[in-house]
Amino acid sequence: MFYKHNLKLIIMRMVFFLFLISLSQFALSQEDLARFSVKPVQDAGISAIPVSLESINYNTDFGRIALFEKGHTGYKEVACQLETGTTAKLWFLFDNKEGEKEYVIRHVADNPKKPVNVSVKQSDQVTTINKSGLPVLSYNHAEVYPPEGIDAKFRRSAFIHPLWSPGGEVLTRIQPPDHYHHYGIWNPWTRTTFNGNEVDFWNLGSGQGTVRFKGYLGVLEGPVFAGFRVLQEHVAFLEPDSDKLAINELWDVRVWETDAEGITIVDLSTTLNTPLTDGIMLNAYRYGGGLGYRATEKWHKDNCTVLTSEGKNRADADGTNARWGIVEGESGVMEGRSGIIFLSHPSNRMHPEPMRVWPLDANGGRGDMFFEFCPIRHEDWMLEQGRNYTLKYRMILFDGEVTPDDAERYWRSFASSPAINFY
Known about the structure:
This protein is mainly β.
């Protein structure tokens, strides 16, 4: 009888203890970590601007981090994504068309499985980012060799190809017979000088240097964005069978979950540093670094256009500066046209950035399409040991037609961040 009584007492205490836990979890689910408002970017009326929050208690031991947006009937949960690291960030997409909004961040006890609209798939050859089940881009981490009979010097890794429009049109090209060293979206430096050596990392046929994939630093996917961070190395071939590391490069590539505009937003930032004691000079030249783009073989002078923020076109854009450039042409999608708006961030060196745009008579008069933001077009750039140098770019992939006003809105949404006010 004594033992039965103790057992009953123990069970009652356990029930009471579980009740207290449930109460604490309920209270926890209502805990507000932060309240804030977001004001739109002026003259940038688009449906989705990536916004990040920092310096908030993101301890997930107390429950899932959730973001709620205030509406007419109360707060509703909206998609957010936690990016951990030295400084944790909470990302979400802000509808800049709808005016100022109020938000609250809370710990919540539930952790439901939600569909991931942007995801990453890896193979031995590439890492591919998909959105809504369709591929957006593939990053080639394995070396790609040129066609049979072409010098193996033209092999390369560390580039993006294919890059697809929202409707599935391939927008990039690699290893064209006129320039076997062209690789979709890529950015080696052409004329460089260090330790008395002149090295060309761009023209692979010279055998002076190349850019190689080194390793993944992180692969991310979630309800707001998917992407990866990867380390690339610029190596010089100063002696036979000997590689000299000249530049470390960190690529951060992200695809955002944006469906409302009928576009795809791709961010590519590159951070450079050098291990060389005396640094490395990136000599002024019309090619090199930044963001280079070799367009699909479908495009030529009669079915492809360029328009820049300064009103320049294919005939007069080369060598000029711009905040953005629209490159578009004929495609097999229902709309009949596809393209990319290339955006340069105001923090970039030489912004508005100089460009290299192939003229209408390029490649024997065919007028194939090549576009590049080239920050060393007019001035040398010295990279010093112990310093990081970052360039930020955004690509707006589209089908159909876009206007200069559209491009300007997208650039403003990239160039400025919505104002955040905590209270």
